[in-house]
Design a protein that fits this description.
Distance between the termini: 29 Å
């Protein structure tokens, strides 16, 4: 999955909105339920209420909590179907920071092309349970799916939140790449897709490697060396681990 953490939106929620969002997932506490219903919260309970709100606000934009909310019901359902108990998942999930446009595009295409690589589908539009299928179906109506981050075109001032590429360019690039993977025809990237890769400074041969081996190539943050340096400085890390992996995201 490719996820975008929207901390700005979470920070702009009112206290009531935070609790309403949290109560969609969990029952919360007696005090939080009381506050949402509009009942009176006693003075001695206010500090405890504020603590809950701050905790829930943080968890609602935390990938670990997202994965917990996703994994636990799947594990319970699987155990019920198999009439057994115990752990369903082999280990803890792995998350990687995507530091720039090239990393986002490569990872999205890698995920969207999973069924093609696994020979479970011949084309992206036939790939069930994928975002690319939803995007294609919506695009045929001149729309974009409401539950996915939209493509907004090239970067510009005062742009809305979204992916800074043309939806048509992305769909064409994924289709071109899927055909190459399925038919093993190297160099079948269209001129339009080639222009997009050129803009991102990604050679075609690197692109094919990225979209077939992304999970093997990267084990940490993904981006250009420049973005990796900024990321490490932000986290106050002295060494740029995984720098060699990031060489795949640039020409030369």
């Amino acid at each position: 999955m490719v996820l975008r953490i929207d901390i700005e939106t979470a920070n702009c929620w009112t206290d009531r909105e935070v609790l309403e969002q949290w109560h969609k997932l969990f029952n919360g506490d007696e005090i939080t339920q009381k506050f949402v219903k509009g009942d009176v919260v006693e003075a001695h309970e206010v500090l405890r209420l504020k603590h809950f709100i701050a905790t829930y606000r943080s968890r609602l934009c935390d990938i670990s909590w997202f994965m917990r909310c996703l994994n636990e019901p799947i594990a319970r359902q699987a155990n019920q179907e198999d009439n057994c108990t115990g752990r369903f998942w082999e280990g803890r999930f792995k998350s990687q920071a995507l530091l720039d446009e090239a990393a986002v595009l490569a990872c999205m295409a890698y995920v969207d092309l999973n069924p093609i690589r696994a020979k479970m589908a011949d084309t992206p539009e036939l790939s069930d349970h994928t975002s690319i299928q939803l995007r294609i179906r919506a695009a045929l109506k001149g729309e974009q799916p409401n539950n996915l981050l939209p493509f907004i075109g090239n970067e510009r001032k005062h742009q809305p939140k979204g992916i800074a590429f043309s939806l048509q360019d992305y769909l064409e690039l994924v289709d071109d790449t899927g055909r190459i993977i399925r038919n093993d025809k190297r160099g079948a990237i269209s001129s339009n897709s080639a222009k997009l890769l050129s803009r991102l400074n990604i050679p075609q041969e690197n692109w094919l490697k990225l979209t077939t081996e992304f999970g093997k190539l990267f084990h940490g943050p993904v981006g250009t060396l420049q973005e990796l340096t900024r990321y490490c400085e932000h986290l106050e890390k002295r060494r740029r681990h995984f720098a060699s992996c990031c060489q795949h995201l640039k020409a030369g």
